[in-house]
Specification:
With 180 residues, the chain is α+β, with helices and mostly antiparallel strands. 31% of the residues lie in helices and 23% in strands. It is built from four helices and six strands, in the order ααββαβαβββ.
């Protein structure tokens, strides 16, 4: 009987310690290098998405102007899968652009010259256009499915790498560019 009581006490203490450890892990100050598109420079400053197509055209090459665009530019690594600590001059641009059907076809034709399309999934972000958020919710997995291409036609210094994903059944493109 005593061993059962001691085991219950031990489990209770273990449970309390586990819950306390979880609480500390979820603290906003723990692991501040965790990537988050809405944080920059390891602070809690929220990045507000921009929607000025002319300003976007100053940051990247836009041979064809989108009908609408929303984008964010950060100085952080925004993917948890990248284990290294980013240098302070590393940037990432994440843009959602909608083109006319004719221009979308032209962009795909040009992008295929650099690299054939590959299936791709993109995490739907809260700041994406409502149509894309709704599409991601229909699949139930919060991802947008599309075809990924090289983003060579959009690259402009300081950006040197990237990918362009056309979201299936839409004229929306997700552009992801990095300086590293």
């Amino acid at each position: 009987m005593r061993t059962s009581h001691a085991a219950k006490i031990f489990l209770f203490i273990l449970l309390v310690l586990s819950l306390d450890a979880c609480r500390e892990y979820d603290s906003p100050n723990v692991n501040s290098n965790r990537a988050n598109v809405s944080n920059t420079n390891n602070s809690n400053t929220e990045i507000v998405p921009q929607d000025n197509v002319e300003e976007l055209g100053k940051i990247i090459k836009l041979n064809v102007l989108p009908e609408e665009a929303v984008y964010i530019e950060t100085n952080l690594n925004t993917k948890n899968s990248e284990p290294r600590v980013p240098a302070s001059n590393e940037k990432r641009l994440f843009a959602v652009m909608r083109f006319s059907p004719e221009n979308a076809a032209q962009i795909v034709a040009q992008a295929q010259k650099h690299k054939p399309a590959e299936p791709s999934d993109v995490d739907a972000e809260a700041w994406f256009p409502a149509e894309l958020i709704a599409q991601s919710q229909l699949t139930g997995d919060e991802y947008l499915k599309g075809a990924a291409y090289a983003a060579d036609d959009f690259l402009q210094m300081p950006y040197s790498k990237g990918k362009l994903t056309r979201i299936n059944n839409t004229d929306y493109f997700i552009l992801e560019l990095t300086t590293f």
